[in-house]
């Protein structure tokens, strides 16, 4: 992992503070509003263009891990997200929706990096990526409408259109870019001139989106600074409970050490950029929802870095089928920037 990736939480925080200061001191709020969603859409296209769906077949090699991951991500986590929101954020409907959007979207990018750092089975982790993406695309509107309750206050059509815009459109563009570039120019050209540049774009675009978001909503953030602190307890509970459950379940199922790492990372890491993009598209008149989502990575990334060391596969258990040997060829050369 590069130094820039290690310092991502710091850069996100600096982007937020810079945007907040600029929004309070300069009249750039109206212009910044029109930057947020385009930056996020381009960023997600860059993330998806690095995704190699050919590795989905790897999931057949670890059915126990796959089933455990799907149950934790798409059954237990939504229930926990609802319980944390209802129990700790009952009087803050926008924060509840922000928390729900964050927690019910499993990561589809940077968990690969932390899986590799901890010597997990990155081949299976990469195979889970498109599975998690498709399932969250289908289930996210269901979770928001069923678990959000009156706090959601958005109709199904609006939410479906937002998911279509934020997930399906970038995904289709990315797939077209991957296939067209490989067909007409070859895989080496695609890896060098499409996938590698895409990897370098993701983090700068995220920082631009965060800067613009806080510049646009500087007054909202200032007025609700104390409310945002209320997010820390539910996030802290989540980032303790989920990895603990993943490790315990790995022991019960007797998963190999590398698969234990993969299960822990894929069930702990969240997809905050996707959640942020959907919040901007589906709830344009409730900016606190989107602002709340920026708090997620500030706590999540240090947690993932710590977890990578706590569950790291030791040399005595390292069998050569983890990060170095099964990481997809394209991501081995140009790993996701998130």
TrEMBL record:
List the subcellular locations.
Cell membrane
For whether the record's keyword set contains Ligase, the answer is no
The membrane spanning regions, by residue number, are 7-29, 35-53, 65-85, 97-117, 124-146, 158-177, 189-216, 228-249
Regarding the membrane, this protein is recorded as: Multi-pass membrane protein
Q: Which Gene3D superfamilies match?
A: 1.20.1530.20
The Swiss-Prot or TrEMBL record annotates one GO molecular function as: arsenite transmembrane transporter activity
Q: What's the main place this protein lives?
A: membrane
**A GO cellular-component term linked to this record:** plasma membrane
Family of this protein = Belongs to the arsenical resistance-3 (ACR3) (TC 2.A.59) family.
- Quote the PANTHER family the UniProt record gives: ARSENICAL-RESISTANCE PROTEIN 3 (PTHR43057:SF1), ARSENITE EFFLUX TRANSPORTER (PTHR43057)
Please report the name of this protein according to its UniProt entry.
Answer: Arsenic resistance protein
Species for this entry? Nocardiopsis kunsanensis
Coding gene? acr3
